[in-house]
Amino acid sequence: MPTVPAPLQPAYDVVVVGSGGGAMTAAALAAKAGLSTLVLERTALVGGTSAYSGGACWLPGSAVQQRAGLPDSTEGARAYLAAVLDDPDPERVEAFLQHAPELVAALEADELMELEWIPFSEYYDAPGRVPMGRSIQPTSIRRDQLDPGVMALLRPPVERDRAGAAGRSTLSGGQALIGRLAAMVVRDGGTLATEHHVVDVRREAGRVTAVVVDTPTGPVEVGATRGVIVGAGGYEGSQELRALHGTPGSAEWTMAPRGTNTGDVIEACAKAGAATDYSGEGWFCPGLAHPDGSGTFTLGFRGGLMVDQTGRRYGNECLPYDRFGRIMAEAPERIPSWFVFDNREGGRLPAIAMPEGDPADHLAAGTWVTADTVADLARAIDVDPAVLTATVERFNGFAESGVDEDFGRGEDEYDTFFAGGTGPNKALTPIDQAPYVAARFVLSDLGTKGGLVTDEAGRVQDAATGRPIPGLYATSNSVASVFGSRYPAPGAPLGAAMVFASLAVRDLLAE
Ligand SMILES: Cc1cc2nc3c(=O)[nH]c(=O)nc-3n(C[C@H](O)[C@H](O)[C@H](O)COP(=O)(O)OP(=O)(O)OC[C@H]3O[C@@H](n4cnc5c(N)ncnc54)[C@H](O)[C@@H]3O)c2cc1C
């Protein structure tokens, strides 16, 4: 039976659905508070997209930023969010801001958790922005320092899971986050049950009391005496729900692990009376197209330029990925796009793609094409050679002058965070060394962020009454995001997921 450490009991104080950053935070804090805690995960591995992630957490105003000497504070973060968010829910935003430092303190009080600042520029030039960012991450840890049973269940990093890269003996980023939290859960008597797929939610006399689970040995019902906490991703893996809610991109191009996050728990909760708010929103990004039809999260463009199917640029390629993804989504001729680069990096993509894949495989499959001149490259991707040649020449002129007159590339701190150009503008490097390459790009995402409607304590709202449903909490990408359509800073998805997980546990303990 794929459970750590024991077979299932008929009921637990807390049943957590899913095993990403929010879910695992909830489980770790509940188990630590002495509640019997069960984590139900539909796949054979724990961690979901969170285990693929960089593990950056946007948790402003904490002791970690203070230790790093950053000009960060809850007030500064409040000003930043006030400037950045488009339609904020003030109560949830304030709950996030107030609780983030408390959560960090609670996590750091545990010997299994250690956090540090990670320099990573914030995504908007707005009041309250901290230069080089205020995101934090769990420190790296060797696998052999954590429970081996837990390690056997940890979803590997994305480049291993998707592209078969070699394993690592040290956990970093999202691996360290999930590994550390899962080890806390098990140490404190919690149970991790993989291949346990929650298919329904039971509600009796208004209260959510149990979940129905498909297991390798058949369906079971598991009771939750204090509450069910849902942290089971969004609906990014369901093409049907994406189409229904007008979410751009596709289930094929999302970064969620295969076969996960189909929104079924959100739907089950809705069937049990929960309110939903499907905004069609996601955490978007440009996605490098792969021969198998997938698209992989790409950021940190150091060179090259992106053109639409007419051979024209349409945005600042160095924008934060979610902002560039949204520009891609604005016009059909931008999906797919072509990313044009030269041979300065020996035929490798001048960007960070997770994963990039082997250029030879891309060239064989036609997801990349190469040519000795820009005009020939244009012909190979079915674009007017005169248009693409003019685009590249104009861009090379910008590289020489240091000013992108069309899209301002290189003007913001984020633009130059990854760039290492040697010209007058670090983010503008000429494209002039043959052979040239065009790589196909689609619209990918790190998850959707519409779903269950929750309040400032992570309580799921009843669609009929607008009041909290007793015994039902939700967080992570299973809920309509506290940040609405914005991706304010690195670590926003995990930071919000973890804060509302913690608030849910606090509420459940107070009940
Ligand atoms: C390469 C990469 C880097 C990233 N870096 C960062 C970063 O540094 N910081 C940041 O904040 N965000 C980052 N993100 C985004 C972030 O990882 C995700 O948006 C976030 O982790 C999603 O968390 P989640 O808990 O909603 O979903 P997940 O982490 O995907 O977890 C959901 C889990 O629930 C399980 N599940 C789903 N349905 C059921 C069911 N019915 N029953 C039981 N289990 C179920 C799934 O199998 C899955 O394991 C990154 C993403 C990628 C791909």
From TrEMBL:
<protein>
    <submittedName>
        <fullName>FAD-dependent oxidoreductase</fullName>
    </submittedName>
</protein>
<dbReference type="InterPro" id="IPR027477">
    <property type="entry name" value="Succ_DH/fumarate_Rdtase_cat_sf"/>
</dbReference>
<keyword id="KW-0560">Oxidoreductase</keyword>
<keyword id="KW-0285">Flavoprotein</keyword>
<dbReference type="GO" id="GO:0008202">
    <property type="term" value="P:steroid metabolic process"/>
</dbReference>
<keyword id="KW-0274">FAD</keyword>
<feature type="domain" description="FAD-dependent oxidoreductase 2 FAD-binding">
    <location>
        <begin position="13"/>
        <end position="493"/>
    </location>
</feature>
<dbReference type="InterPro" id="IPR036188">
    <property type="entry name" value="FAD/NAD-bd_sf"/>
</dbReference>
<dbReference type="Pfam" id="PF00890">
    <property type="entry name" value="FAD_binding_2"/>
</dbReference>
<dbReference type="InterPro" id="IPR050315">
    <property type="entry name" value="FAD-oxidoreductase_2"/>
</dbReference>
<dbReference type="GO" id="GO:0033765">
    <property type="term" value="F:steroid dehydrogenase activity, acting on the CH-CH group of donors"/>
</dbReference>
<dbReference type="InterPro" id="IPR003953">
    <property type="entry name" value="FAD-dep_OxRdtase_2_FAD-bd"/>
</dbReference>
